[in-house]
Structures are given as C-alpha cells and as structure tokens.
Amino acid sequence: MSVQRRFTKFLGLAAVGALTVGLAACSSSGGSGDNADAGDLTTVGFVAVGPEGAWREANEKNIQETFTEDAGFELKYAPATNLDQKSQIDAFTSFVDEGVDVILLSATEASGWEDSLARAQEAEIPVILLDRGIDPDDPSLYITRIAPDNVEVASAVGDWAVEQFPDGGNYITLEGPAGVGVVNERNEGWDSAVDGSDLVEVAAQTANWSAEEGKSVTETLLKANNNNIQLIFAQNDEMGLGAAQAVEEAGLTPGVDVKIATIDGTLAAMEALADGQLSFVHEYNPLFGETALDVVNKTLAGESVESYIIVPSEAFDSAEAAQAVLADRQY
Amino acid sequence: MSNAARTNWLRELIRKPFFWGVIAIFALLALNVLKDPNYLAITVNPVNGNLVGNVIDILRASAPILMIAVGMSLVIATGGIDLSVGSVMAVSGAVAMVFMKDAGQSGSVGVALGAIGLALLVSALLGAINGVLVAYIGLQPFISTLIMMLAGRGIAKVITEGQNTSATNDPFRWIANGFVIGLPVVFLLAIAIVIVVGLVVRRSALGLMIEAIGINPKASRMAGIKPSGLLLTVYILSAVLAGVAGIMSVGTVMTVDVSRTGYQMELDAILAVVIGGTSLAGGKFSIGGAVVGALLIATLDKTIVFLGISSSATPAFKAIVIVVLCLLQSDRVRSWFVQRRKPPQLRPESLPAKPKQEVAA
Question: Which domain holds residue A74?
C-alpha cells in the first residue's frame, strides 16, 4: 500500500517537474517583449541555439544587432534551454500561434522539424533557416537557408590535411554531438577530401563541442594509440583548443608532433593559431545578419530568393595569417 | 574453522552493495586490457617525474564526480534529492573564471584563492536557498532543486554575460592539472575531502541523525533531532561540494562553458550513489559506495573512448552496463540464482569457491 502511495506521489512530482520545465521554456520564449501594439514594426521570431560557444555568440549577436527597432523590426529572441530541441519546438510553436511576420530558425538538431514547419506554412509565416539545416531537407517547407557551406569548409580543411601529409599519417576526428546536421555535413566534406589519400582515421569520437571534453577525449585517444597520431581534426574551435592542451600534457608539441585543424575561426582559436598551438583554422563566417535582413525584406515584398545562400568564409593556414586579422577580429 | 571465517568474510563482502560496482570496474578495466595489453601500465614522465597512464586519467576524471556523489548521497539519505549540482558546478566555474579574468595576474596565488573562496561562497548561498526551501518552507526537494537547476544555469549565463569565459592563472590550473609526489592533485584533493566528510559524518552522530531524518522525519524530531537545521546543512554541503567539482572541472581547460560545464552531472551523481548501493528511498547512505560509483562512472566514460565505441552507440553501451549492474545488485535477481544453486547442497565449501573464481575473472 505504501509503495503504491509513494509511487503516485512520485508520479505527481514527475508531472509537476515536467510542467515546470515546460513553463520555463514558455517564459523564455515569450519574455523578450509583449507589446502587441508594436505599430508598424515587423515582428521577427528568432528560434536560436543560445550559449554554445564564441561562434554562436557572435552569430546571434550579429542577428540581434541587425534586426533592430531602428531598422523597423521587433526581434523576439528565444534561445534553446541547454541546446534542447524540445524547447525550440515549443518556442517555434508559440511564435506561430502569436502570428509573427517571419521566423528565423537555427535548429539544434536536424531532424524532427517537418510538423512544425508545416504548421508555420499553414499559418503563412515564412521560415528562414540560419546556419543549421534540417533533415530530411525539404526546401518547400522553408524560404531559404543562409549559411556558410559546411561541406565546402570541411573539404577545404581536408584538402589542407592531404597536402600537409603527402605520405599519410594517423588522425583522429573530434565531432560534435551525434545527429546534429553540422556534424554530418562536416564529416561529409572532410571525408570527400580525404578519401583516396594515405591518411588513416584511427578514431572518431564526440566531444560535444566542449573544450573540457575535447581535452579528455584526446588524452585517452592519444594513450589508446601510443601517441602515434599526427593530425587532429576538431569540428569546432573549443574542442581543438582542449585537444591542444591534451597534446601538450602528453609531452608532444602541438604544431610539430601533432597538427590540429579546427573550424569556426573564433578569436581564441586565432590567438592559438598565431601562437602555433593550432595549425589550421578555417573560418565559418558567422556575420551574415545583413544577408538575412536582405532576404527577410525580399520575402516580405513577395520576391523569390534562392533556396540556399552560401556565406563566404576564409581559411587561415599560418601564424602570420592569423596575426594579420587578430587585431580586428569581432568574435 | 579458518575456512568458515573466510566464507563469512566473503559472503559479507558480496553482500556489500558496492561489491558489484567494484567487480564492474575490474571488468571494464579487463575489457580495456583485452584491447591493449599495456592499458594498465603506468610510466613515469622522465621530464617532471609525474605518473602517466590511463588509470591516472581515470582518477583525474573521477574527482568532480566524487565530489558531487558524496554530497548527493547525504542528500538522498535524508529522503531528498539535489538536482541542482550540475548547475551549481557551472555557477561556481563561472564565478571563478570571471573573477580571475578581471583580476588578471596569472601567477598570483592570492587571486586563485580569492576565486575559489568566492566560487564556494556563491555555491553555499545557492545550497542555502535549496535548504531553506526544503527545510523551512517545506517544498518537495525534487521541486526546489529543480528550480535551482534551471535558475543556476541562468545565473551562470548572467555572470559570464552568456559567453564561454577563459582566464589564465597558474595556481588555479595546478589544482586540476598539477601533480604532487607523482599523483594528480585533483584526485588527492577529492579523496582528502571525501575522507574528511566521511569521518565527520561517521565518527559523530551526524550520519545517524541524517539517516534518521530519511527514515522518519516526525519520529526523528520526537527523538530530539532538529531536522530543519540538519537539512539546511546537508543541502549547503552538497552545493559546496558541487562548487568544488565546478572548480575542478573548469580548471582542466581554464574555460567555463556555461551550457556544458556540469551538464547532466546530477544524473551521474545520482547514478554513482545508486551504484554504491544507497537507496533512493532515503534512510541510509554509504560514502564508500558513492566513491565506488564515481570511480565506475569515470572508468565507463574513459572505456567508451578507449574502445572507440561510435558516438551514436555510446548512450546504449552506458545503459547496458548500468542495467546489468543494477540487476546484479537486485536481491530478487540474485535469489533466483541462489535458489537454483542450493538444491544439490553437497559440499558447503564449494559455495565460496565459486564467487572467488568470479572475482578472479
């Protein structure tokens, strides 16, 4: 009997817990400003990723600074709670119910967006994907996707790696969380460039975009391969910076014994490249607020835009190249 | 005679709830040795005399989990739960990093101590809020700490202005990455803290009182224990230990990642406690069990990377190991095997021999 009572109590607790989480998600989405009488301002709902790293921060700040009230927009910013897709879908749905004019979406996870997007389409709210794509990719569900091309960027890193190691070598890949669109695309680009070369992938592990895990994973992988690793491909800067510390602690010299290539091009990574800790950094340009603004205006004016707009990015392959841009790096 | 004594000793050992946790650690290590016979080898770094090896890495990785698991086991013993430890880790790390970034002076011990002190103070404050909500307001621990879990990460974001913040400070870095007499500082520190907490709660009546609250708060009050003050203390202790874990965690890379530092660590802590044999119903705890649990989780995490299990299969692998472990711990499941083994009942000596073989394996 008491067991049963305890069980019902626990069920109640769990229900209340779920409710609290749900409420928190709601409040974070609707909190940014509830003045319905925004006059002739265009309301833009931004379903964002939230704190994830320097790159994301630069990107979302750039968007926020572009869609200002002076430019004629009211931006409702809804970052995900701890990168949780559920909280993004909730925010997205409440934007549709609210009837915003445009929705900007940076999805934390690629799959599972069909229903939400179809709902927005029914409500005739145009959706523009920023950075992250969706899977399966159905361009009829959204207006356009604005992003630097992950496949292209990763294959540029791959080309550099093949050129650096003409005689081949062992490498490890530090990936983002499994199932994220970016990870799949960066793998695809890298694989397409490295295929057919003498480089051997000895391990690929997720380090969840984090420096701490990047260090911990690299430390173990170096030991698992008796330090016989010449190249580390980190799919973002943070993991690469963590890996560099692990390489140093293993008694190897980053840049000499182990070359580390990363994608993103944040300030910290540029400093590390200038220092020789990293060997190759490919920028993944986060500053495309202007492009997004242009697309939003065109869409609202009824003009058609291309279904995929690629933002150009630069590659940095030497300390000097990094040094040159260090002074006016914005992120 | 001595044989019988040994039998009893062995039986006693097997009955210890964390026995299977220890077995699981050895099984995982054995799995790694199968992949690489040199897995357990520990070498001395010729440059600085530090010990280097996979086992050392495991010890280092286990330190933050040890901290939160010990705190969690005390909270669970009172019949509560602390879901906020992961977020408190992030807050503590954020406070320390922002303080050191603003203070500069990368070599200063004073700045490092200031950062640690401030981080622990803020952690204690968060723990006190938990404790007051539970002990004096009478909210369910699940709810109060859930609120703190959500709010904590928000607080960390406010402190760092939403950015991942890095700082340089050599003494602080030393805590997480340094070595003393060849062993990692972070592990020695964690074990020292565990021993102090263990002695305080077990050598005094504190532990018994904490368990009494978990068994029956009303009866314990009538027996002259003041549950409110004790509950408050336990929640503050849990948060301070989480603060220490946060310092260890951000110290490894000298960066606080507001959305990742301590992320889901509360689950690791609860898991460690359960593996250690503490019942979630409250009323008893085992510090030794929590230590075994924490070591097992660190070993499991490192094993997954070492064996090269693909990222997508990682959660499944972890789940399988833990489910098997829980099944082994379950009295009911074990009794099935005992019953099946009993009927022959020819030589009582053969019984202890069997588990011994398992130990060796």
Answer: 25-142
